[in-house]
């Protein structure tokens, strides 16, 4: 009868009570468990008392519970499933707190602005495409406009035919007038090369003037380009002076990064596929809650080997400096 009642009481017990009961059966003290897990005794007591608010994130808590369960001989997966049910009310409470958090509100506004910007960009593309298509259709010649050049040529023909009619009375001039007309071109003939030479002399000057303009514009472009290049080099040098940390993740992982001035650059849960980029004054103090969830980590564009840092319960804490 007692053997049947004991499982029933264990089912109703919390995860912390189950771990405490298993520890007592093993004859271990809280200090011994804490020492083997490299944790403070207060952390073990918080787990046994189901005081989940003492932990920054679920990843740390689940890692501690899993290691504790292995030490006292309990099934870690079953305890994690029970722990998920116990954490559900706390999750809802934290979600409500996050909704009222101004940082969450700011992040939502940023996402909303990004969606609006994408929609405006697509609308601009559609508008520009429509304007280009409309302009192409309007400027393309229509079949009804083809006869217009023919009418212009037809109007020009009478003017050409009328020119000989105006010139016909010239043979009816008197002999003296004809002689005068024949003599008049004689002094004009030497002047014709002079008149022709003037446009010829002007053509090289006109052709040469754009060349001079082009040569004058070239140093101006080079002079204006030099400050822009200098400004880009200065901005690149300033960016290189600030240490930069880049991380990518293949699983859920809590990450906290602080700079050399004590400011917390990030302290959040990263999901699978996320990419984190932070920069700040050196040195950077990094805390990783799940080392196996980190896909890549680079500091100053150089890969960082996590194997050189101590890892306890899949948790690593280290400092990076240039």
UniProtKB/TrEMBL annotation:
<dbReference type="InterPro" id="IPR001387">
    <property type="entry name" value="Cro/C1-type_HTH"/>
</dbReference>
<feature type="compositionally biased region" description="Polar residues">
    <location>
        <begin position="1"/>
        <end position="17"/>
    </location>
</feature>
<dbReference type="Pfam" id="PF13413">
    <property type="entry name" value="HTH_25"/>
</dbReference>
<dbReference type="InterPro" id="IPR050400">
    <property type="entry name" value="Bact_Cytoskel_RodZ"/>
</dbReference>
<dbReference type="InterPro" id="IPR010982">
    <property type="entry name" value="Lambda_DNA-bd_dom_sf"/>
</dbReference>
<keyword id="KW-1133">Transmembrane helix</keyword>
<keyword id="KW-0812">Transmembrane</keyword>
<feature type="domain" description="HTH cro/C1-type">
    <location>
        <begin position="19"/>
        <end position="49"/>
    </location>
</feature>
<feature type="region of interest" description="Disordered">
    <location>
        <begin position="1"/>
        <end position="27"/>
    </location>
</feature>
<feature type="transmembrane region" description="Helical">
    <location>
        <begin position="119"/>
        <end position="138"/>
    </location>
</feature>
<feature type="compositionally biased region" description="Low complexity">
    <location>
        <begin position="221"/>
        <end position="231"/>
    </location>
</feature>
<feature type="region of interest" description="Disordered">
    <location>
        <begin position="142"/>
        <end position="231"/>
    </location>
</feature>
<protein>
    <recommendedName>
        <fullName>HTH cro/C1-type domain-containing protein</fullName>
    </recommendedName>
</protein>
<dbReference type="Pfam" id="PF13464">
    <property type="entry name" value="RodZ_C"/>
</dbReference>
<keyword id="KW-0472">Membrane</keyword>
<dbReference type="GO" id="GO:0003677">
    <property type="term" value="F:DNA binding"/>
</dbReference>
<dbReference type="InterPro" id="IPR025194">
    <property type="entry name" value="RodZ-like_C"/>
</dbReference>
């Amino acid at each position: 009868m007692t053997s049947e009642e004991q499982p029933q009481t264990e089912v109703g017990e919390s995860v912390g009570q189950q771990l405490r009961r298993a520890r007592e059966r093993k004859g271990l003290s809280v200090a011994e468990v804490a020492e083997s897990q490299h944790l403070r005794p207060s952390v073990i007591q918080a787990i046994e008392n189901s005081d989940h608010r003492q932990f920054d994130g679920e990843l740390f808590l689940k890692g501690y519970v899993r290691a504790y369960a292995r030490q006292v001989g309990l099934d870690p997966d079953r305890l994690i499933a029970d722990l998920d049910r116990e954490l559900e009310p706390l999750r809802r409470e934290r979600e409500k707190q996050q909704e009222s958090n101004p940082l969450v509100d700011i992040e939502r506004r940023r996402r909303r602005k990004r969606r609006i910007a994408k929609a405006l960009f697509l609308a601009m593309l559609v508008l520009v495409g429509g304007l280009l298509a409309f302009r192409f259709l309007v400027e393309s010649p229509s079949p009804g406009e083809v006869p217009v050049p023919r009418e212009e040529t037809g109007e020009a023909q009478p003017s050409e035919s009328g020119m000989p009619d105006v010139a016909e009375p010239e043979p009816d001039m008197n002999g003296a007038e004809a002689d005068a007309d024949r003599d008049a071109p004689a002094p004009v003939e030497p002047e014709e090369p002079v008149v022709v030479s003037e446009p010829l002399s002007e053509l090289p000057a006109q052709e040469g003037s754009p060349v001079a303009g082009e040569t004058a514009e070239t140093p101006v472009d080079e002079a204006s380009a030099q400050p822009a290049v200098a400004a880009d080099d200065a901005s690149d040098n300033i960016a290189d002076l600030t240490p930069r940390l880049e991380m990518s993740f293949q699983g859920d992982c809590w990450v906290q990064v602080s700079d050399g001035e004590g400011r917390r650059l990030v302290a959040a849960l990263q999901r699978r596929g996320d990419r984190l980029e932070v920069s700040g004054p050196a040195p950077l103090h990094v805390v990783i809650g799940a080392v196996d969830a980190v896909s890549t980590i680079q500091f100053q564009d150089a890969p960082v080997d996590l194997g050189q840092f101590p890892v306890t319960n899949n948790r690593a804490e280290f400092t990076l400096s240039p």
